[in-house]
Amino acid sequence: MNSVFNLPSEKSTILIVDDEPAGRDTLEALLITGNYNLVFAGNGPEALQKAKKYQPDVILLDIMMPDMDGFEVCQQLRSDPDLFEIPVIMVTALDDRDSRLRGLEVGANDFVSKPFDRVELRTRIRTIAYLNRQRRLRTMELQIERDFNRAILDALGEALVVTDQHGTIQYVNRLVNDSIELPEKSIAGKNWLILGDNTLSSKHQEVKKTVWGGETWRGEITGIRQDGTTYDAMLTAAPLPKYYSSPEPSGFVLILRDITPLKESERLKDQFVSNVSHELKTPLAVITLITDNLDMLYNRLDDDKRKKMLGDIQKHTENLNTLIDSILEVSRLDSKRISLEREYVNLALITREEIDKLLPLAHQKNQDVTVSGTQSLPVWGHDGQLRQIIRNLITNAIKYTPEYGKIDCTFVIETEENIPESFKSPEFIRTKKKWAVIRFTDTGSGIDATSLPHIFERFYRVDTQNRVRGAGLGLSIVRELLTLHNGHITVDSVPDRGSIFTIYIPLLQEA
Ligand code: ADP
Q1: Strand pairing of 58-62 and 88-93?
Q2: pLDDT, tens digit (0-9, with 9 covering 90-100), for 444-453
Q3: 7-53 pLDDT, tens digit each
Q4: Ligand 1 closest atom vs CA 401
Q5: Does residue 242 surpass a pLDDT of 70?
Q6: Are 289 and 316 within 8 A, CB to CB?
Q7: DSSP result, 384-437
Q8: 115: preceding bond cis by omega (within 30 degrees)
Q9: Alpha carbon of 70 to ligand 1 centroid (Å)
Q10: Helix (H, G, I), strand (E, B) or coil at 243
């Protein structure tokens, strides 16, 4: 330990207590040549006060003092938790057996008598001061070692609880407080079963048996926080060493890891897989059905019929393709494999290009598509990702707007005053940045107020939209891609009247 903890080296301190100046002078003269700090007190109260202040290694205490004599001083020292360990050498008259006995009763460690024998006095002081310094150093070392271990346990990254052999909580590290929200003061001294709900009580015997058998128990439990909320926890319980002749461990160490996020991502993954398989199967089933029919009935069908069936296959294959693209995009977003390459992009230009590509879809439904606003909307972004955002929003507008509906797309440059409060960052306000804004307006089905807050969630689809195909991924991708561009999206919608989706991306301004 010494190599890690450098303890300060200091001289031993001796407190000399005597009401008579001559007595103090004598002791000073005898001890001055020793390597000591000498501190003096002329009465009992002063002695107690200086003992507190200097924490001496030895107190040389005269018995005969007015008001508070040496016995009483010694008694008070022994009953003070800060002072009770300080060694006391009482100064008595030679052969004063009664005083020595009383001294022992009130807790004196040793005696010297007047007139002083110089050698004896020095030897006794040296020995006692040395022993006391060793004790103090050891206490300090233990304290440092304890702080050191606590720091390690706090840095562990796992919530740790230590109990005694009855299961009573003795110690918790900081993470118990920070991550699973059980402050030490609220659980110290309680039984460890309060860490979980009744599923823990039912496993209690099993855990105890394993740990008592000297093994480590591992398993999932439902943990309870101080506010009563629950979380999924992975519990590891291990035995502490056995001491003395006890057949049982002296307690156990419990490590609790909050695995709620892990569980949640597992649940999402399962849901994802089941949704995706469903969405993939449906168009495949339709394609298989049409090709089977085509195969069996080929000769009996006229050209128009065959063309129509081929067209249907094409349409479903395209849907399948779009779906697979969305799934891959979501997977790239999740695994952070998405490209962060940025370049200059004119948002107005690429939006016009994407709209042109989708016009045939709108024309099939006799929809009127208009585009207006500035020709130049420079942003710093990823061309492909920005095109994907625009494509998803326009496809939705076409999909969810009935025949003969209207779709409009408007480009604007907005200053900080005209954007929603929650998008404003101090940096933006300071630099008076501007935003590239595109507003997609349609006269479609609109979205009801209950569904509106959820439409950007993965796989969320509005119940009433079952006629229109979709996996519920488009808008979630839009939002995530916008976030990667420090952008935002808002939506205003009135059922049966239409919707306005507005995207905001920081405008690329000349330096
Ligand atoms: P998908 O279109 O594949 O269902 P999205 O994530 O793109 O998935 O959209 C989620 C839901 O939001 C859709 O199911 C639809 O109900 C609703 N929605 C999206 N865009 C519009 C729109 N322009 N008009 C009406 N409803 C819309």
Answers
A1: parallel
A2: 999 999 999 9
A3: 444 688 999 999 999 999 999 999 988 788 999 999 999 999 999 99
A4: 24
A5: yes
A6: no
A7: HHHHHHHHHHHHHHHHTS-TT-EEEEEEEEEEGGGS-GGG--HHHHHHT-EEEE
A8: yes
A9: 91
A10: coil
Orientation of helix 70-78 relative to helix 97-106, angle to 10°: 20
The ligand 1 atom at the shortest distance from the C-alpha of residue 446 is 25
- Other beta carbons within 10 Å of 27: 22
Cβ neighbourhood burial of 390 (10 Å; 0-12, 13-18, 19+): buried
Q: Which residues contact 434 (CB under 8 A, 6 or more apart)?
A: 413, 414, 415, 416, 506, 507, 509
Q: Is the CB of 88 under 6 A from ligand 1?
A: no
| Residues in Cβ contact with 407 at an 8 Å cutoff, skipping those fewer than 6 apart | 362, 367, 368, 369, 370, 394, 397, 398, 401, 440, 441, 442, 443
Test site for ligand 1: of 275, 325, 393, 455, most ligand atoms within 8 A of the Cβ = 455
CA distance 234 to 255: 8
CA distance 164 to 159: 17
Could you tell me if the CB of 389 is within 6 A of ligand 1? no
- What is the distance between the alpha carbons of residues 345 and 506, in angstroms, rounded to a whole number? 12
Give pLDDT, residue 388: 93
- The closest residue, in CA terms, to atom 11 on ligand 1 is 461
- The whole-chain average pLDDT of the chain stands at 89
* Residue 475 CB less than 6 A away from ligand 1: yes
Is this prediction's pTM over 0.70?
no
Roughly how many angstroms between the first and final C-alpha of the chain, as a whole number?
Answer: 59
Mean pLDDT throughout 214-233? Answer: 91
Among 278, 461, 497, which is best to mutate for testing ligand 1, by the most ligand atoms less than 8 A from CB? 461
| C-alpha distances out from residue 176 to 59, 172, 407, Å | 45, 6, 55
Closest CA to 110 of 102, 120, 119, 100: 100
Mean pLDDT across the stretch 307-336? 88
